[in-house]
């Protein structure tokens, strides 16, 4: 049976990405200057998905307002609020029960970034008539994930959630395929874990213990769960490196004397002064002003930013940020409407710094 429906995550508080995610939904954070969740939507559409259901935090409309009804991708997108507070991602799926009905579906954690196509996963799921199919990837820190357990014949026999001593280096990625009805039946038979959540691994363990037909396939190409800031920066860098040169165009104004090396995109209305050095890959948003600075490589700058005198590389700068200081900035995620300026007096530095901020001076 063809999979035409998908559930994507859009809720949660992403506390590991504070303070940035106190004011912006994690799934709207830009990677290569495109909202993270757009990559998940595009992968789903490419695989043949026609309807997507996205969970949101109660009362939050940012995702819905930004994404719309799916017409941009030629599909239908609906949003549903997560009720009862955070109770684990298996609970997110169960909340969409009425949307899915009696059809097979994909569940996709939208903070997972992959380069490969999902089509081979879908094709194998349909060909083998699986009840469930898991996408696996080899990682250096499997204790952060659900870990598959195999017998001596490489048959999948269990899945453990965040084990302290993983038996292998494989992680169950945030991409899951399910046959009709079975997920919701299994949900009625699992209990909350010690951390008070309905774990997705408990669903898969239930399947395996009840002899359901559970398949697995290792993801081809690169995969990253962007749960930490360093993961976001790695994902952004790799996406920039992989983007074709046709995506890098100049719609701004560049003065004579600007030094440009590699792939550089400059948005409409942006102005680049003659004393600027740009080392690609770089994406500069619309209506930015750059002067006497060196940008790149592996850097994205949001719209409405003004940057003077600084050197910035391997970083993500969000919209409307103002930087005017002789400072080298690297491996950084800088939020919206931030000011980084030079101290003009000698009586100490003035700072307004939110919770969980990291500043190196």
Automatic annotation (TrEMBL):
Q: What are the alphabetically sorted keywords of the record? A: Transferase
| Gene Ontology molecular function, alphabetical | transferase activity
Which residue numbers delimit the Mannose-1-phosphate guanyltransferase C-terminal domain?
A: 279-352
One Pfam match: GMPPB_C
SUPFAM superfamilies listed in its UniProt record:
Nucleotide-diphospho-sugar transferases
Asked if Zinc is a keyword of the record, the answer is no
Question: Which NCBIfam families does the entry mention?
Answer: rmlA_long
The name of this protein is Glucose-1-phosphate thymidylyltransferase
Question: Source taxonomy lineage?
Answer: Bacteria, Candidatus Magasanikiibacteriota
């Amino acid at each position: 049976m063809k999979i035409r429906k998908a559930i994507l995550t859009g809720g949660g508080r992403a506390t590991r990405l504070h303070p940035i995610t106190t004011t912006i939904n994690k799934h709207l954070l830009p990677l290569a200057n495109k909202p993270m969740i757009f990559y998940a939507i595009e992968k789903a559409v490419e695989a043949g998905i026609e309807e997507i259901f996205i969970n949101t935090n109660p009362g939050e409309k940012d995702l819905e307002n930004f994404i719309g009804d799916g017409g941009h991708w030629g599909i239908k997108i609906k949003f549903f609020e997560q009720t009862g507070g955070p109770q684990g991602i298996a609970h997110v799926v169960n909340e969409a029960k009425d949307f899915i009905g009696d059809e097979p579906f994909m569940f996709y954690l939208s903070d997972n970034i992959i380069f490969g196509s999902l089509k081979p996963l879908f094709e194998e799921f349909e060909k083998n008539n699986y009840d469930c199919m898991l996408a696996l990837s080899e990682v250096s820190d499997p204790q952060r994930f659900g870990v598959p357990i195999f017998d001596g014949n490489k048959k999948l026999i269990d899945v453990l959630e965040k084990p302290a001593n993983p038996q292998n280096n494989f992680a169950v990625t945030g991409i899951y395929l399910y046959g009709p009805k079975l997920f919701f039946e299994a949900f009625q038979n699992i209990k909350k874990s010690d951390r008070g959540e309905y774990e997705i691994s408990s669903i898969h363990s239930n399947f395996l213990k009840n002899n359901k037909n559970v398949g697995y396939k290792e993801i081809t190409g690169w995969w990253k769960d962007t749960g930490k800031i360093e993961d976001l920066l790695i994902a952004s860098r790799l996406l920039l490196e992989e983007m074709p040169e046709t995506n890098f165009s100049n719609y701004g104004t560049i003065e004579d004397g600007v030094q440009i090396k590699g792939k550089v995109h400059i948005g409409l209305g942006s102005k680049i002064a003659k004393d600027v050095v740009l080392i690609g890959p770089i994406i500069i948003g619309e209506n930015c002003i750059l002067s006497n600075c060196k940008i790149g490589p592996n850097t994205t700058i949001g719209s409405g930013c003004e940057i003077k005198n600084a050197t910035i590389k391997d970083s993500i700068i969000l919209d409307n940020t103002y930087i005017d200081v002789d400072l080298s900035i690297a491996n950084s995620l800088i939020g919206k409407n931030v000011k980084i300026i030079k101290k003009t007096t000698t009586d100490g530095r003035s700072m307004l710094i939110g919770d969980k901020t990291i500043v190196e001076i």
